[in-house]
Amino acid sequence: MESLYDLVDKYGAPIFLDAAAYYTCHLHPENVDKTIDEMESRWYDPKHQQTEAEKMLEDYKNGLTILNDRSLAYVDTGGFDFSM
User: Which of 13, 15, 33, 75 has its CA 20 to 30 A from that of 53?
Assistant: First the structure.
């Protein structure tokens, strides 16, 4: 995979957006292009060495995304009440 668009082509927009949510809080569920634009323009790390898009692609290539392994998905067990 060379770009996030390759992931969208392979998995479809809804599945891509689910995976992208692990890398950005700037999702645009109605528009994948806007989400990708956001990810390409925002830093993933505090030293500004890697964008969110670069990190997601790197993790995908290393088998570390929910696209590669669904067991990596966050599961809300409801074990803690954050409303306190």
Answer: 75
